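ping. complex inputs:
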Amino acid sequence: MSGSSSRDGGILDRSIVPAPGTPKDLAFPEYFEHTLANGLKVIVYEEHALPIAAVSVVARGSGADDGGMPGLAGMMSELLTKGTAARSATEIVEEIEFLGGSIGSGAGWDSSSAGMSILSRHLPQAFDVLADVVRHPAFPAEEIERVREQRLTDILQNKANPSSVAYDRFCAAVYGDHPYAHPLEGTEASVAALQEKEMRALHGRLFAPDNMFVIGVGDIDPDAFVRLCENAYGDMTPIGAVRDVVQPPSAEGRRLVQVVDRPTAVQSSILVGHVGIPRGHEDYIAAYLLNMLFGGYFGSRLNLNLREDKGFTYGAHSRYEARLQSGPFSAGAEVRNEVTDRAIEEILLEMERLRTEPVSEEELANVKNYVVGSFPLQIETPSQVAQRMINIEIYGLPKNYYNTFNSSILALTPEDLRRTAERWLHPEQTAIVAAGRGHLLRNTLERFGAVALFDADGQRIPNVESQAQDT
Amino acid sequence: MHCDFVSPGGSATRNAGGRRAPLKGEHSINLAFEEYDLDNGLHVILHQDRSLPIVAINLWYHVGSKNEHEGETGFAHLFEHMMFQGSENVPANMHFHHVQSAGGTLNASTTYDRTNYYETLPAHQLELGLWLESDRMNSLAVTEQTLETQRNVVTEERRSRYDNQPYGTMLMELFSRAYKMQPYRWPTIGSLADIQAATLERVQAFHGMYYRPQNASLCIAGDFESDEARRLIEKYFGGITNGDVEIYRPFVHEPPQTTQVRDYVYDSIPLPGLMVGMHIPDMNTPDFIALDMLSYILTSGESSRFYHRFVYESRIAQSILSYAYDLELPGLFLFRIIAQQGKTPEMLETMLWQELDDIRRNGVTARELQKAKNRIETMFVRAVTSLQSRADLLNSFRVLAGDAAQVNTHLEKLQAVTLEDVQRVAAKYLTENNATCLYYLPYPKKSSEQNA
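pong. complex structure:
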């Protein structure tokens, strides 16, 4: 210890940790639901503290449901706000932004949506614009080319970003020929090939009243909101079609070691993992808690080990990505070049420890306290509440999911977590991916398995010997 | 716990107007608060909102990287990391542990002008948060070993966020050329050499000079009982003394720039970029308010003038940002433009000067000004949604503007900006001679480098 002198002269005994007061419960708030005759569900979460409202129109199905055209849902969704039968792209954004609001659209792995946020006094006008873009997108040729160019440039930019290239390589390694192998935004080849007719077809299939819902949060009156929805969407015809279901990926992983060469890198971006768990699986909450303890928060084993103990990195994290099918489980960090192999080794050791050693009651209590205690902080703002309401819809969770969340967490035992680790963590079957200096990593990562080297375009680089012969 | 309030297909109950207390004031938003000083000079701001059982603790120290000296750059930020490495009664890393085990979240950040520390806690853990923050204001108990680890963590932070990030060093490269005198010329993260050279003696001395009640402002926002909060704050912070070292506060102004500064930098990037900075007055001047408004007009939203011209219409840029940098000493008006494929920084720059010339001569339209005002109003409403952001905003106005009450009058100042103001500040500050222009270029391709 160095020169620890207290300023208050010791007049207050500060050695005792203050006892907490009496906790107050905060339940997940009630919200309003109504279904129109054509099957369109309307959801409202009222909160009048601030004079602002946000509305999203969300369609089930998306990025993974692309019919072999990666990036289609994202590009289709983005184009919704780029022109309708009645309004040009410029008119749409000018109308909303002049009112002080914002409008946008996009797609994730499991849903596509268009949404806007606006001072509540302008809600009816902005609501009309949103309904127009959802129902009558024009997909103008000029706008398609503009969006295509932006997306190709984004893909180009991502290739210079170490964490993006590591992530893309990781997904390709883990998922093989499953749709999750591709970047959500598509590839250069797929984005270059996307056509208007495919976008129109996907739009018709996703944005049907029986496949979508409208969610309004904030300074909104539910009755008035239902009337707005009835007027704007009540005449839509249900399509009754069951949409394509994305096949589950094969969970049979095998050890792969892949390096993306970035010759000028001053750090390695590493990802270690395998196929994870579906969002709707009964083990999901246990896996969530397990991951929190492993690498989900600052006090996690991974962060304390790699950052606070070893100083290898600014931060280490792990996550099960929540998707309809099993999304990736990954642990990762950006570490200095020389310690890349040691960091990977620590990640694998920490995974194995969770499978073999039950966590202590104290460590379990700590992470439960964090998850349960911080639940009110997770539902503080209207948008946080809305996101959870959307999760319930998209992932088919029980309506009382967030009401029973805390008790589900508290019921988990050390043995539950060990069993969960045994089932959902597989250190022997991990893909190990690092983006960094290829010549250095090829040698140091050899001990985890045969190293395959790639460039940022995803092309396999032959080993040095054969390269010498080639040139 | 209710789970039967939703019944798909049927009508349902409503949540009777929401959970949270309204913030609507006479004009727009009003944040009610009380404030006072402890005898030792610690400023206290209390914003009560008992709607949700959450309390936000937010503590600002009026010290940032501008208080550093050459040769010790990055110290204020490294020190921020050391504040988590132990105080008399809270061993290294136990700060995180206490807060997270209580169900709280926490962090800290350092800028050019200030350092903030914050926890959001369940309301019944207020005392824990005050105990933790006061213990590390009262004492610091760090070791050579924890300092060594944090030197390494910060080194990796610099690499992750700047050096190994495409375009990550654009801002620091611009600032280092735009400023000759002011202590904004080095980045808050500091140089790798200076970070590695930091000593334990300097850590303790820095604590002694800056981390004292007189130099701090504590804001509590959320669910608490006012008398109880006052009692606890007095209990934990009231006895902390100030010491007698004079606080170093640089008050340096650049001499006026008369000729343009130009340079270029190579980086691992696929597309070139242009970064331009013009000297502007500090954040507490009327001209700054007009410049802030101008920045919204130029690049806030896809319908903004410059987004429309550069990205949508001409398609010469992939992205464009502008920012009137709000700093205590005179700041910079920044443009950051990334070229679209096949376009050059020369094209970006030519168009930038043409567009600025148009504004200097003709101003902007009344509709553009009104749109920016409307957007600012909405953004302000969003900015006060969470308790922690309200607390941070109150401290921001207190520490950097000298008066927390400005939180409720700032919007009016923005609403008062006129078309003439906007044209005048454009003509006065956004000029070629007042600019530093930095071309950001991809490394030239060498065929031998491809597979090296």
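Chain A has 18 helices and 13 strands.
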